[in-house]
Amino acid sequence: MAWFSFTKLRDSLFKSRAALSRVEHLARERRPLDDACWEELEETLIAADFGVATTEKILDGLKEVARREFWRTFDQAITRFRSDVAAFLTRPNQRLELLGRPAVVLVVGVNGSGKTTSIGKLAAQLGHEGKRVLLVAGDTFRAAAAEQLEVWGERAGAEVIRGRDGGDPAAVVFDGVSAAKARGYDVCLVDTAGRLQTKVNLMEELKKIRRVIGREMPEQPCETLLVLDAATGQNALSQASLFNEATQLTGLVLTKLDGTAKGGIVVAIADRVGVPVKFIGVGEGIDQLEPFEPRAFVDALFDA
Asked: CA-based, 20 to 30 A from 191: which of 20, 133, 266, 304?
């Protein structure tokens, strides 16, 4: 898959980076490392959506190393902090793993997170790699959801399987997976409903869809990706925990990082949920869904 240049990634993260600009300012001051410094860093991280629990974990680690290595100035702590953030974001299976043929990728998330758009962008990237991709419109409840997926399918050059509006999502998914298997597709991307306001029914529906896929193809889905709107901050963290309990997530897609998101939420989610971030959305263009590279993300986020 094509990579953004570092400059483009950095520019796309402008608003996220702004929330953390105080960290770089602290590093340049070379202040004596004292309690006031730690308190200021703590306030900065919480304001940047790292969350209390992740912030405490990071600071506890930094303070331990500071004592052990006899740090004297705050720039030493900031240098190590950036390294620790990259470590928090680095997980096994960071890349999309398309196992089997067809490889079935179940995509979940609440309405408005950018789920269907992310599916279209991913389909386009896979198509550019020469893979035959089938899209399955498993969101039968949201008005115009299937139509939106069809628009993206046309842009990405991918066929779309859909059912009737209001129909059984699991039945549509069964038809889609069966078609992908029979017609020799390489990848089957399954869109799903995102009605968080009826979360109990939604989670049961997602479990049913997983069972239907598993009965047709026992080793699938090979990936279950949760799409999160990074701009929702700590709400995204609670969504990640909820979906992970119900659907056994294998990866995260963080969207709208080019908007009002504060970059720390990416670190908080990866830390608290323990699931790798596999893609980030950094714009509306069809080519602006990027494979996630922790070190490049950290360098761009902290204005390297």
From this structure: 266
**Residue in 299, 297, 230, 291 with CA at minimum distance from that of residue 258:** 230
The owner of tokens 């390297």 is 304
Angle ∠(68,71,73) on CA atoms, nearest 5? 160
Helix, strand, coil distribution of the chain in percent, nearest 5: 55, 15, 35
- Other residues' Cβ atoms within 10 Å of the Cβ of residue 147: 12
140 and 168 in contact (C-beta within 8 Å)?
yes
**Per residue in 227-262, pLDDT tens?**
998 888 778 888 888 888 888 899 999 888 776 667
Total residues found in the chain within this entry:
304
What DSSP assignment string belongs to 198-224? Answer: GHHHHHHHHHHHHHHHHHHSTT--SEE
Kindly state the helix (H) or strand (E) to which residue 108 belongs, with its residue range: strand 103-108
184: left (phi over 0), alpha (psi -120 to 50) or beta: left
Query: Does residue 1 surpass a pLDDT of 50?
Result: no
Local structure of residue 95 (DSSP, 8 states): S
Q: Residue 73 gets which letter from DSSP?
A: B
Residues paired with 103 in a beta bridge: 187
Look up the pTM and report it. Answer: 0.88
